[in-house]
Amino acid sequence: MGWRREAAPLLVLLATMAALPFLVGESDVYLANDFLITALFAMSFNLLLGQAGMLSFGHAAFYGLGAYTVALLYSKLGVPIVPGILAAPLVAGVMALAIGFFVVRLEGMYFAMLSLSFAQLIFSVVSSWYSFTGGDNGLPVSPPDWLLPTNAYYYFTLAVVSVCIGLLFLVRRSTFGAALAAIRENPQRAAYLGLNVRVYQLAAFVLAGALAGVAGSLRSPLQQMAFPSLLYWTQSADPVLMTLAGGVGAFIGPIVGAALFVLLTFVVTSHTDYPLFAFGAVVLVLVLFLPKGIVGTVEGWWDRRRAKPAPATPPQAAHAAAQQEGSRP
Amino acid sequence: MTDVLIQILSGVSRGMVLFIVASGLTLIFGVLRVANFAHGSFYMVAAFVTYTVTRMAGGGMPGFLASLVIAPLCVAALGAAIEMLLLRRIQHRDHFYQLILTFAITLIVADGVKMIWGRDYRSVPRPQLLEGSISIFGSPFPSYYVLLIVIGLVIALALRLMLERTRFGKTLRAAVADGEMVGALGVNVPLLYTGVFTLGAWLAGLGGALAAPVGSIAIGIDNSIIIESFAVVIIGGVGSVSGALVGALVIGVLQAIGIMVAPRLAIAFIFIALCAVLLLRPQGLLGRRA
Amino acid sequence: MTDAVLELRGVSKTFGPFKAVTDMSLSVLKGEIHALIGPNGAGKSTLLNMVAGGLPPSAGEILFAGRSIVGLPPHQIVHAGIARSFQITSIFPKLSVIENVRIALMARQGRCRSLFAPAAGVMQDDALALLEQVHMERDLDRPAGELAAGDRKRLEFAMALAGAPELMLLDEPTAGMSPEERSLVTAIIRKINATRGVTVLFTEHDIDMVFSTAHRITVMHQGSKLTEGEPAAVRANPRVRELYLGEAAHA
């Protein structure tokens, strides 16, 4: 697939998000901020699932660690949140390195279960260590004055998230990304071509963990609080569901999934007391009828539509042409 | 010293409930190869049904016995419906989708329970006969816990007989060992899947009904029981009922001792044990290497 | 034995009570095409798998270019200079044909480590050259999984070649191919052997192909070596005739 086709929607989205505070009210900007953070969390997860084929069920551990890094630095040492946000990916990344060292030894469902177990282990420590983390009461975070206005923090988030997603975009198309794709497709073959499969998987795990840490570090200043529920296993399910909803195979899939879920939460919680019911129903429909996700389904539909009216160019050749175009720097 | 013994015994009784729930999960995991997140929902629904039944029947022994029959059956019917109407449609897709489907069910059920029973904590009284306690070396031990241990052992024995003596049980074991072969042998696979899923749901329901008079019933018990049950299944070995018994007792006792040693970190002990098993013996203590 | 590129000394492999390979010794000389033949279950694939690092031997020593490679993981053995193909073709089904070969080249040359350098077009020319060698330069952008069985084997062959290996382990390289494809692959094996000096160790069921291609042949039976020698000598060996050619004649 040509890089233009993947980059174009991202740039359109960036422009839209940048213009948003001029178009909508403050509460909607807060919602958009929520969306940006959630989108980064889901995107970092899909580096594992979509690119490397690793279904992690413990990704919230790194999200929560990011949130707590900012909160702990702020409340224990008085460190302002911006240095905290810089420290978060380091803390989450180091923890991902330690956990990843063990989890990449396992495959498939066992990998999912081990990542879930480690995440629950961290959750149980964070939620019960009252003297350090505040336990169930959480830890307060206050942004400095210049970041207090909703719009200011929104643009700050937009900048950080854009950089991180740009990074993920480069990684997906890099030689490292190509190696991950090969490992996803056929790990045995990849090893017999000379790739050290576990090292690549570990690198992906650390990178994904660090970026989830960034997302989490943006979350606690937004809510002005870090809660243990950010690390609970149901939180780990969120990026899985969003990625599935948007489309595992498409780069912007998790972003679309995150948008769907944030909007759905907003709409549903303002009309009923039962948001989970609505989520469950939506996910059920997606699993049963749209296994490729929203983006995957739309792309398939678009390709078929484009292929039909122009039988003069066989799809093969059109695809080849697209490839040629894409491979030119 | 007797304190420790009593604590271990209550860990065993808690482990027995966990075993009943996890034995269903391990059979489903072993045969359908689905990590069934909805298993915790089955447990929770059964606990709430138990609450309703005992309230309607007035809280005595008849109500208790009726709930032990009715709640697991309700949940078994729910399980059968989920398998036949939903899971079967995506049977041939990647297991990832089946896992997500069962997760979607947990969300729907969680809010469904809130709609029907509300958000308040509920409790189910123990029947008078089981309210007291017996004496073990002079220390009291709740009679109800004794009942849990007895029922757990009966279920373990019944499952063992079923797996070894009945046709269904033999097919089930074969399916755990080699899923593809069973299809090739002319077994009615859809029927087997529905049967196993229904049986598994029934066991989760029985566990929920038995646990209802211990502690309180609340939203969220589905999330905690499912994680503990997964831990049991992994520690014991996927598809192994005896493994589930061992795993459940390990976790029950570990937690009971953990509460004495470091109350707040009791749950952490489970995950340390789980990580250790996954790393050293990923097929589980009694599981076979795939 | 000074010019043996691969040397096995007393290699055994047991799976529980089952002995797959027993006390095998084998020398593959530099620059030769060496065939490993024997009936099904003789232990040929197990032997190749041990050399490639997929299975640890239960006993014995495996030397490559004079250095022990026992205990090395597969990816290190690849970087030592041994490439392999599988009996059941192993490729990346969803990647395109050219991507399959490019990733093979990139992996071998250690060019997969950059997080940000774009992969598009990397080693495109080398990949094209390799695909031309196996006469697959036409289907470049098709997903590899859509190829016919014989084409997939040739693609895998090109991927094995991508590492510019010193030794190639080929497990039934022409299985499932049409006669034309067989002679094509045989010709390619001879050509890379002659022009690049690549040593080849392969297993094969097609006896004609073995005798026409191999410089030397090792016959395995029930996990042990029956005989080893040049094609004419092996052909004349009465035990081989009885065991192997006899079977083939009956079939």
From TrEMBL, chain A:
Signal peptide: none
Superkingdom to which the source organism belongs: Bacteria
Region of interest: Disordered: 306-329
Molecular functions per Gene Ontology: branched-chain amino acid transmembrane transporter activity
Any single Gene Ontology cellular-component annotation: plasma membrane
Main localization of the protein described in the UniProt heading: membrane
Entry membrane topology: Multi-pass membrane protein
TM spans (from-to): 7-24, 30-49, 56-75, 81-104, 111-132, 152-171, 199-220, 240-264, 276-295
Entry keywords, A to Z: Cell membrane, Membrane, Transmembrane, Transmembrane helix
Compartments, as annotated in UniProt: Cell membrane
Ranges of compositional bias, category Low complexity: 315-329
UniProt-listed Pfam families: BPD_transp_2
Record's keyword annotation contains Membrane: yes
The name this protein goes by in its record: Branched-chain amino acid ABC transporter permease
Taxonomic lineage of the native organism: Bacteria, Pseudomonadati, Pseudomonadota, Alphaproteobacteria, Hyphomicrobiales
Automatic annotation (TrEMBL), chain B:
CDD domains given in the database record: TM_PBP1_LivH_like
GO biological process: amino acid transport
Location(s) in or outside the cell: Cell membrane
Any one GO molecular function term: transmembrane transporter activity
Main subcellular localisation: membrane
InterPro entries (UniProt xref): ABC_transp_permease, BCAA_transport_permease
Segments traversing the membrane: 15-35, 42-58, 64-87, 99-117, 144-163, 230-251, 257-280
Gene Ontology CC terms: plasma membrane
Name the record gives this protein: Branched-chain amino acid ABC transporter permease
TrEMBL record, chain C:
InterPro entries: AAA+_ATPase, ABC_AA/LPS_Transport, ABC_transporter-like_ATP-bd, ABC_transporter-like_CS, BCA_ABC_TP_C, P-loop_NTPase
GO CC annotation: plasma membrane
GO molecular function: ATP binding; ATP hydrolysis activity
CDD domains assigned: ABC_Mj1267_LivG_branched
Family per similarity comment: Belongs to the ABC transporter superfamily.
Gene3D superfamilies tied to this protein: P-loop containing nucleotide triphosphate hydrolases (3.40.50.300)
Keywords: ATP-binding, Nucleotide-binding, Transport
One Pfam family cited in the UniProt record for this chain: BCA_ABC_TP_C
Record protein name field: ABC transporter ATP-binding protein
Domain ABC transporter: 6-247
Entries under PANTHER family matching the protein: CONSERVED COMPONENT OF ABC TRANSPORTER FOR NATURAL AMINO ACIDS, CONSERVED COMPONENT OF ABC TRANSPORTER FOR NATURAL AMINO ACIDS-RELATED
Top-rank taxon, per record: Bacteria
